[in-house]
Amino acid sequence: MLDVTTGIHVSRETWLSVLLRRVPVMALTDITRIEVDKAVEEYDRLGRDAFLQHYGFGRARRYMLLHGGRHYDSKAIFGAAHGFVPGQQPMAAQDFSGGAEHAVGYLRRLGFTVVEELTESVVIRDDLVDRVAHLKVNRSSGRPALFQPIVLLWAIGRARRGEPRLLSWKETEEELKTLLQRHGMRGERPRPDYPVAALCRAGLWVLPDYQGAVPAAHGDTELRSWFRDKQPLGGLAEPVYDLLRRSGETRLAVIGELLCRFFDDLDYGPLLTDVGLYDDDVASDETPGEAEAPEERPEPWLITAVEYERLCRIAKHGEAANHGKRASRTARNPIRSSAARRAVLGRSQGHCENPHCTGQPADVTDKGHPILEVDHVVDLTLGGRDHPSQMVALCPNCHAVKTRGRTREALRDILLKVAVERHNALRTAHGPSAA
């Protein structure tokens, strides 16, 4: 139900409890900075986990109240603050929305700063891809500006190579100016302050030495002056950097989302080459060191139907209508190839896809992956595609037979049917969009 006086959604149970206590819902409008400050003081006294447990809230995954140089779970603070209004009780998590139109909006109207951040120590891949998919970019030219995509691709390349997450503003500005000048294919000016400010607002970028809201990513002199005066140290949020560093599938998913959304009609090869992301190993996971956390899944090469669909979409992106001809963007595209290889290995469930395989090696690679080789059933030079529907995972023996065995032509016919059947089976499990 909607409280028309505040614009905040409350549950039916909350309304009933209010009526039973004969406390007017108008008390929501009585929350002031005083009640919020009291909730913040209690948060500091109890600590984050105890405070959230006491009031029945989970950790915020998006919006954080920035107050006194510290971050607080905005929805939990708002719910607790309601309990400090005389005659009122704290609001439970299910009683109202914590989004920008409700608790966050109310806190901002009271003069508080609420920021969007990925604050968890572990970021979920789909959450990160979703944030990238919903970046707010300038469209004054009629097409999405490339400021933010170029900065993100540069940062992903740095994460992949294990380079320092944070850089001085001078270093950041120098590197990004060059990239924007060279690859701003829609007339983007070499102004790194625009995309960095926008990515801070999106919760993907941090300036850890500066405690406060970053100016909005528009205007001209004011934004440029702010970065010149503050000279902030900055880079990807730590959990985002860590995930992009170790997870090849996440890296490829984010790159694919950026390419599909922003570079649909552009030659992105030179840009990806400059940032170190245009090769067949872009989807490879980092080999974990002794001190690093293990993968979430004991068999990380396995994928879900949703992940398979995403990889197929990347593999299909940018294919020309005459895909069988030897055009450079069609026959040799490391991003498509890497996505397709990743999809096929996951689809194989760790087993050779030749139905007549006589024995796959029991050993595994240094990364714990099965010893399998991904192969094009139809060679690219003969009109084949970098697409899972025409590719299979084979053990070394079956790969040798398929390549140079006397029965290779018959085996290729079998393997092509297997590739199509397995591809269609996963498409059916997710939906028809993974063509």
Helical content class:
40-55%
Strand content: 5-15%
Summed over residues and divided by their number, the pLDDT gives a mean of: 81
Give helix and strand order, one letter per element, not per position: EEHHHEEHHEHHHHEHEHHHHHHEEHH
Q: So how many helices?
A: 18
- Count the domains: 3
Q: Tell me, briefly, the overall form.
A: globular
Class based on secondary structure composition and strand pairing: mainly alpha
Distance between the amino and carboxyl termini: 42 Å
Q: Biggest sheet, strands in spatial order?
A: 4-3-5
Largest sheet: 3 strands, antiparallel
- Give unreliable regions as ranges: 1-8, 13-26, 288-297, 321-331
Radius of gyration: 26 Å
Write down how many β-strands occur, each being a DSSP E stretch of 2 or more residues. Answer: 9
Organism: Streptomyces bluensis
Keywords: Endonuclease, Hydrolase, Nuclease
Protein name: HNH endonuclease signature motif containing protein
GO molecular function, one term: endonuclease activity
Textual characterization of the structure:
This is HNH endonuclease signature motif containing protein. Mean pLDDT is 81; it is low at 1-8, 13-26, 288-297 and 321-331. It contains 18 helices and nine strands. It is mostly helical and 435 residues long. The two termini are 42 Å apart. The protein has three domains: 2-116, no CATH class; 121-296, no CATH class; 310-435, no CATH class.
